[in-house]
Design brief:
The chain is α/β, with parallel strands linked by helices and about 250 residues long. The protein is about 40% helix and about 15% strand. Helix 1 packs parallel to helix 2 (about 40-55), helix 1 (about 20-30) crosses helix 7 and helix 4 (about 105-135) packs parallel to helix 5 (about 155-175).
């Protein structure tokens, strides 16, 4: 584990399991103190914190439903107080899916997915940019999906949210690029998580790599984009999908 960074800390939303947990652990290995946000699974969030601390890192579990407009300020305030430094890395990973075909998709299901997957990322990005602009540096990574680039029937709400996230990424990136802040997106394909546990072998057969990816493979890409080495990469969308969107 590198020397702890004293200049700033990192926040990963939806980090109690799956891709988010892998990202939190990966970023911690670069010396960042990490806020492990979770909605309801406190035991899993505590396990992620324990794993990070077990490797010599620093982390704190932060409860909060990112769809709640009041939560961004609460998360940032708690994380800044815990480690006495600004948040200079934000990973918008929290997401939900409620699938149905467009003719039968309810307004409430549309609204819930957009609120968590897109509106929350906007609010968190807006809050993160305040200290980043003062510091003239920062990293924001948004976790999109290949469904934003490649149609997947039954996921109109999820696809719209993830496509909107890419548009938000690109637009915000050019707005703050000259202030030393980068904003990028990662678009995973079929990754072995709870959300994809029911993926059939027929769907996986469409993946050129002929396998699902792992959360750690996604986290490795996020770790790079959050690093000092990625200072000239901004407004990009990095697909991690075994060639599915090629």
């Amino acid at each position: 584990m590198p020397e702890p960074r004293q200049d700033g800390c990192a926040l990963v939303t939806g980090a109690s399991r799956g891709i988010g947990a892998a990202i939190a652990k990966a970023i911690a290995r670069d010396g960042w103190a990490v806020g492990v946000n979770y909605h309801s699974d406190s035991a899993s969030a505590d396990a992620v914190v324990a794993a990070i601390e077990g490797e010599g890192g620093r982390a704190v579990a932060l409860a909060g439903d990112v769809a709640d407009a009041a939560v961004p300020d609460q998360l940032f305030g708690a994380l800044e107080a815990a480690f006495h430094c600004p948040v200079l890395v934000l990973v918008n990973n929290a997401g939900i899916s409620i699938d149905d075909l467009t003719p039968s998709l309810h307004d409430s299901d549309w609204d819930a997915v957009l609120a968590t997957n897109l509106t929350a990322a906007f609010r968190l990005t807006r809050r993160a940019l305040k200290p980043m602009l003062r510091a003239r540096r920062g990293r924001i990574v948004n976790i999109s999906s290949i469904v934003a680039l490649r149609a997947n029937p039954g996921q109109a709400n999820y696809a719209a949210a993830k496509a909107g996230l890419i548009a938000l990424t690109r637009t915000a990136a050019v707005e703050v690029a000259r202030r030393g802040i980068t904003i990028n997106a990662v678009a995973p394909g079929w990754i072995e998580t709870d959300m994809t546990a029911g993926v059939s072998t027929d769907l996986l057969s469409q993946v050129p790599a002929r396998r699902a990816g792992t959360p750690e493979e996604v986290a490795a890409c996020v770790r790079f984009l959050a690093s000092d080495q990625a200072s000239y990469v901004t407004g990009a969308v990095l697909t991690v999908d075994g060639g599915l969107s090629a």
